[in-house]
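Need the bound structure for EPU, inputs here:
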Amino acid sequence: MDKIVVEGGSRLVGSIPVSGAKNAALPIMCAALLPTGASTFKNVPLLQDVATMGKLLRRLGCEVDGKRTLTIAPPTAKKAKLEAPYDLVKTMRASILVLGPLVARFGRARVSLPGGCAIGARPIDQHLKGLAAMGAKVTLDHGYVDVECKRLKGATIVLDMPTVTGCENLMMAAALAKGRTVLENAAREPEVEELALVLNKMGARISGAGTSVITIEGVDELGPIEHAIIPDRIEAGTFAVAAAITRGDVLLEGARPEHLDAVVAKLRGAGVHVSAEADGMRVRGGGELEAVDITTQPHPGFPTDMQAQFMVMACVAKGQSIIREMIFENRYMHVPELGRMGADIHIDGRTAVVRGGKKLSGASVMATDLRASASLVLAGLVAGGKTEVLRVYHLDRGYESIEKKLRGAGAKIKRVKT
Ligand code: EPU
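Answer from helper R.:
Posting the output first, comments after.
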């Protein structure tokens, strides 16, 4: 298994290209099940999760060709295989995103229940509640959920919480349902808006995406499209923190500041200079970083996917930062590892108190989820000496060539095959 080795202390200068967004690409790939022909997507990030989704779609009978530009041809009703098996779903929870499109297009689906994961229990009750409200018969047995409905019917669905993949699944299901579906308390993430844009290009009639009420007027058929994936706001945010903590000056090529309002506000609060440029976003760290308090929330609040990275910034900033993780109940796995690097962090339930101003020191570390692993790479950039980040497969799920991109801006970082 590979590891990432970082020699801390380099200032990051130059530009880093931002890849296509993982959490936009995954639902959009599933949306390719809906139309009657092959769709082509550009700017697809080269990630393990995208490869896993490709594998799942092939198992369902799709033809999947290409990498950066990806063409997905859905199967005919005769050739479709309507089961997402445990071996794939357990490696990637986003596999649940095939449920809505399969039922909408083929009338039936059997998907393994994802179960818990490293960051929390993560139930899918809202996905199932929505499909049941649209007339589907939902049964659970042997660890699988079976959903059946000849033609879904539009319904008003009030979500208990603004779930991102829940909204995406229900939007895809409702696109081919009979009549109008209204999703209330909907997720407002840019990736939800992007999926609505893709579905509308296919011929769907969706309005309100990006707000908390999404209305979908069902249509009888959707057509294939071509579409380029938006840049990854979390990858951009991760590199922004890298620039800030190394007191660097980095242009994040392609980053869209309008997707990062809460992150940019907190960076500025810490004394980091952030400016929009024609081709991306520039981040300059100058003097000493100030402590910042953070509470994760659904978009447009501060994203949970940036919590671990900001915790590293809090470790080296002056003063005490309070961090509250309100989305996932178990998303502090990076804390003990950062502790081994000399960080002073105290956890009490969902709250972490970070006493900053610490000089971190390099160590061998590992984490059990994607963003936690990214935070350890960031810590390695500012730590004294050598840091080895093990279990790199977590990083490869969501960061394209992270070591090459950081090395391009002057970091001393490499991947070592072990
Ligand atoms: N929830 C329920 N029931 C449901 C659905 C969600 O209780 O039916 C709860 C979850 O347990 C959680 C909260 O609602 O406490 C929000 O979860 P959400 O459903 O919004 O998360 P998700 O759709 O499973 C996506 C991203 C995550 C990101 C979260 C929050 C994708 C493929 N994944 O997950 O991304 O953290 O939204 O923004 O879009 C990552 O990229 O590292 C990652 C984990």
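Comments: The mean pLDDT is 96. The first strand starts at residue 3 and ends at 7.
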